[in-house]
Amino acid sequence: HLPVTEQSVDIKYKATPPEQSHPSARWQLSTGEREQQTFYEMGIRPVFHDLLDAPQGFIDGASIVVLDTRLRWYQQQEKLSLQTLTFFSMQSILAVKPWATPLSRKLSLQIKQRDISTDQQITAFESQFAMGYATELKSVLMYAMAKGQLDYATQLKNNYALYLGVDTGALWQFDNRFISGQAEASYQLLQQISGEEGDIQKLNLGVQFTILKRHALRVEYEIMDYEQFEVKEWKLSYLNYF
Known about the structure:
Elements: E1 26-34, E2 37-45, E3 47-49, E4 62-74, E5 79-92, E6 104-117, E7 120-137, E8 140-152, E9 160-175, E10 180-195, E11 200-211, E12 215-225, E13 230-241
Antiparallel strand pairs: 1-2, 1-13, 2-4, 3-4, 4-5, 5-6, 6-7, 7-8, 8-9, 9-10, 10-11, 11-12, 12-13
């Protein structure tokens, strides 16, 4: 008989239990500039999680947002408007593994302000759907998807705009002894199929820094290229989770 020695195995899990995640509801205060016009923004999201929120307790690359509402005040115009009302948004960006090739998806339904010139916007209903694949390289999750988008507004040609194109991006989590947070970069190329004329290119950059468990700072930058004109916007936000 061979001697048997008992060895204890210490298994450590990296995952954070869901009950230790950030609270689901969130409000935010923002300031920024759109084409040299200063604005202030207030937003509230009743439930769930987006990709720049702290990921602890959530599945990496997963996001569900319901009834996220943003009101914006332009200082020069002294005008308050509904900037966005997201009825529902879902993102599931899952990396392909040697044993599985899951589809990544995006879906959103919202009312938003859509640019029709550098200094004029209209209220439009927007629906988006995208599907593709993602891969993970160290702490960076990269994806590429085929995308369809439909905008509806009476001011658009034939009351709508239909696009097909690509949606690409990268998500990065950083965490060290000094600072932690998430960053995202995305690029969309949408080709006009029918309705309102003109293709769209969109570049988004965002980074969020965690300040304790219930507080965060977020910086966002966006470029919208509508062929005939281009709109740039940056925004700094304070977020509180409750």
